[in-house]
Design a protein that fits this description.
It contains eight helices and four strands. The chain is α+β, with helices and mostly antiparallel strands and about 220 residues long. The chain has a domain of about 150 residues: NADH Oxidase (3-Layer(aba) Sandwich), CATH 3.40.109. Helix 2 runs antiparallel to helix 6. The radius of gyration is 20 Å and the shape is globular.
Length: about 220
């Protein structure tokens, strides 16, 4: 006979409609202020705050609760310099040889190129790894979806804690597993520089799609 799964009582705070609406729009306003930052101050960041944000990311739902993620917090200057050196080699190859003209045209308004000073300027890096399997080779499910949800929570938590962030995905990212000594079942998913904006930091003028353009109600 199959054993019943262990359960616990749900801890849930029900709010009235007005409070729910106020909280949802307040969060919307706060997140509308989040921007990707490429010009960071070299000021140090409180690592305990980053640990708390990573812990929040670890609460994300995942396929079969396998939690197929690892977050590597990198504050050591030498290790960050090595990451920058390797990332810039890949990015230079991308910008000068691999990227299509259309792709480069789409990036032009952001003013980016192969140089990635934020990898050493930001107070710290959080490198997100996805786990294809567990350490014993057991299967994980919906890995990219699960890690994507966790990464979104992490970005939100870092923003609400008062930090600037950037999502950086040099391609390919195989070098990160070697530099950070991660096991074979892990694959680099994203680098998140985190810290404070440099004085006078400017960001591209962009527009977000309106709610009416992204919402379908039936």
């Amino acid at each position: 006979m199959k054993a019943e799964p262990e359960t616990m009582e749900l801890v849930f705070v029900r709010r009235d409609a007005a409070d729910s609406i106020d909280r949802a729009w307040a969060y919307n306003l706060e997140m509308s202020r989040r921007r990707s930052v490429r010009d960071f101050s070299s000021e140090t960041v409180p690592l305990e705050a980053l640990r708390a944000a990573i812990s929040a990311a670890g609460q994300a739902p995942s396929g079969a609760n396998k939690q197929p993620w690892t977050f590597v917090l990198v504050s050591d200057p030498e290790r960050r310099a090595a990451i920058r050196d390797a990332a810039e080699r890949e990015e230079r190859e991308f910008y000068e040889r691999r990227a299509s003209d259309t792709w480069l045209d789409d990036l032009a308004h952001l003013g980016t190129d192969w140089r990635k000073p934020f990898l050493t300027d930001a107070g710290a890096l959080i490198v997100v790894f996805s786990q294809a399997t567990d350490a014993q080779g057991g299967p994980h499910y919906y890995v990219r979806e699960s890690v994507g949800i966790a990464t979104g929570i992490l970005l939100s938590a870092l923003h609400l804690a008062g930090f600037a962030t950037l999502t950086h995905t040099p391609s390919p990212m195989h070098f990160l597993r070697e530099l950070l000594q991660r096991p074979a079942n892990e694959r680099a998913y994203m680098i998140i520089p985190v810290g404070y904006p440099a004085d006078g930091c400017r960001v591209p003028q962009i527009k977000r799609r309106a709610l009416a353009d992204i919402l379908v109600e039936m």
